[in-house]
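Session log. Operator J.P. requested a structure for one protein chain; no other inputs attached. Running the standard single-chain path with token output.
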Amino acid sequence: MTSAPRDTGEVRLIEEPGCQQMVGYRTEVDTRDGSCTVTLELEPRHMNRHGIVHGGMVATVLDVVCGNTAMQFFDPDGNADLVTVSLNLSYVGSTRTGAIAARARPTGGGKSIAYVYGELFDDTGRLLATANGIFKRIRK
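Structure written below.
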């Protein structure tokens, strides 16, 4: 996972080609504490055939927020390359409109493995999903 961070003071925006551009989420890292938030304004393209946010979108947003949190765990400047080893999700709610926002925090790790817990909320603050992820740092 590589990123092209753009520092705007206390918040570093991470702008990546590919998936981020295709899906349309926004990734921000608070440079004071390394916390990460990923937001997505829901559009028809993000919905499943039942008109609720697609589980794949939920998984993508949680993978991104947990991965960027792991990146900060390894390197506060956000320059650590890593891969997702495992991402376990629990879907606990759904939404049809508005925005979703994910936040994550590291729960442990070492020099090459980070454990991260993430949560996804709708724009009213209702919990939609949780994630537990394991991320491995790649050394070049």
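Operator note: Residues 13 and 28 are 5 Å apart (CA to CA).
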